[in-house]
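FAQ
Q: What does a multi-component entry look like?
A: The components come first, one per line:
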Amino acid sequence: MNYTKIKLITIMAIVLVLSSTAFAEDVYISGFLQGLYGGGLDDDNPTPSELTAAETRLQLKLESYSDLAEFFGRLDFVYDGYDEPEYDWELREGYIKFRLGNYFDFKVGRQVLTWGTGDLIFINDLFAKDYRSFFIGRDDQYLKAPQDALRGAYYSPIGTFSLVYTPRFTPNRIPTGMRLSYFNPMVGDIVGGADYFFEGRLPEAEIENGEIAGRFKRYFGTADFALYGYRGFYKNPEGFDPSTMEAYYPRLNVYGASIRMPIFEGIAWLEGGYYDSREDTDGDNPNIPNSSVTGLVGFERQIVTNLTVNLQYQGEVMMNYDEFVESVGGQTEVDEVYHLLTSRVTKLMRMETVVLSLFGFYSPSQEDFYGRFSLDYKYTDHLTLTVGGNIFAGNDKFTDFGTFQKNDNVYLKITYGY
Amino acid sequence: MNFTKFSILVTALIFALSLNLSAQDGVAEDLMKEAHLNNFYAADDGLAEVNMSIVNSSGKERNRQFSMLRLDNEEGGMQKYYTYFHKPYDVARLTFMVHKNPFETDQRWLYIPSVDLVKRISADDKGSSFVGSDFSYEDVSGRHWSDDTHKILEEKEHNGMQVYVIESVPKSDDDVFAKKITYIDKEHMLPVREEYYDDKGELERIYTAEKIEVVEEIPTVTLRKMENVKKDQHTIVEFSSIDYNVGVKDNIFTERYLKNPPRQYIK
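Then the predicted structure of the entire assembly, as tokens:
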């Protein structure tokens, strides 16, 4: 067993060295050193620490390429002292990218993936998100959690076909109670701490439990149009297994489309999707989400020089709502239709060395809110100072943002890039 | 009868005058067009490494380093730009693509590799700063000569060069400047100095071609400076490793290559 492992590692190392000498000419190194310190604003947050972040991060990027292939690696080393000080590291990206013939591109390995048109609203983008990072002030790049995947693209005369195969299901990283508290329906309150550590049960590591995401994209004039398909699981543990009393990730298929185009001196986008809840097709199982239809529309433009504003609306309709209501005993606080409004405001000042960014989510149907703000000051080309914050509010504790309402925080971030 | 004769005479006179005027305008416009084509449409395509240095009023300097690839689909018309950023760290590996159509709104795309995001950007901001410099988007890709009416003010010697001095006034009332004075070097037919005035008649910015080199038989401005007189700051742009007619294909300027930089050009 150990021998096989060693052999495998040796072979991999040889392949790596060979391929790097065969293809690569130079290796470029870059990255940054960053300190992030944040504190909670709510005295009664049940998390173990009053801090939301106290970490020092070193990111190392290695890059090498030739005309044939490209290698890229991004590695983070973190000293994390928000509760119990510990060292941590993560391979954020590590892939090889190459071309086959004139029409095929491949990207294999650990990578971040994004598609779709929404601004922080994801309908057809079912790639992993990291809300634990997103809610405490880490850089925007950390919203995307990496996936170990094989991505292929075929550039045909009628458009581009992309296929992403992720052998091992990669869920979203959502608050577990350790750093950020959440609403626990069993307790009936917002909880945190080791006693309420929350983690969904992953699907078994079997071939059929991989994720497949596909997209077809083409341009019609200046409009880009796309069709999407996904076969996998809900990315959050939205299912509940009564036999083991565990939260898990139910099976999900998604079919959708989007269009985006320049119009009225700005950019407009429209996206829709059908969430097909495979384990509850009749909608009468209260422990598994019902299927739903969701759509969003957005528009962005520069209002005056250096001030850009966008607006989005998302609506979602639960299928088989009557069956759902019946399954929970005839009474529920869950609405049939969900509405969400968002807006982003970006103001560039002092020759783009000062950037003010505001983003607000507001749901009129769930009566909850999530606001983000940040102010970046690029002191030099290498040194950036950031102050920012995250504010959650909700009339109820069980809604999408209301569940995080005790996690309001402000943070300070210092980044030295090299 | 007499009245008719008189009116014909007057009409003829006005016609002749206007012809003469438009002929002069025509010469000025032709000069501006030639200088514009030489400055922004040199050869059929071009590749360069660009170093940008932005110096603010207190003397603090910031730098931007990027590779730029350009393809002209039509001389004086449709043009495509591909930009790959090397420095500073927060924009490194970003790619930026523009489909520029002088008669319609540009199309722009930005690719942010750290989140694998292709973003389309609204382009109604030709006066906006390009990457925080004193150059605007319009300065980088050029302002079409047909957007303004031109008049030759004089011909004179300037810094040892024989130049045409041309005044340009935007046809639209609401534009990024109210008046522009351009000095065109007669030898290379390149703009060597531009003064931009605001609607109060005050000098806002001065562009100067600091260095002209002949690259592959094409006179090229390799050092460009934009001074913001009002803000007391300036930006210097240096072009190096210039290569013309590299044979770049139209399909390079698509999302495929936005996400996968064409390494045969972009190092």
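Q: Is there any commentary attached?
A: Sometimes. For this entry: Residues 2-23 of chain A form the longest helix (22 residues).
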